[in-house]
Amino acid sequence: MSVYVDRLRPVKPTAAWPWPYAAHLTADSPEELHAFAGWLGLKKEWFQDHPRHPHYDLTVTKHLAAKKRGAVEIGKEIP
What is the pLDDT of residue 75? Predict the structure, then answer.
């Protein structure tokens, strides 16, 4: 089982997402995704149950922490 992050990409900040960059966190199983997200300090209500790729959005800081913890960076964007 693995946890994955896609590459950071520039985004237009909004009221809901005030940061200039974003990435996604996903995993092979929902249990692994939620456990890893919890370790990063992400709230379960931030989970996005996307039909193809359930994920959490990540800031630059959380992206770096996820990679440091062992998340695998993948080249394509997770929608």
Answer: 79
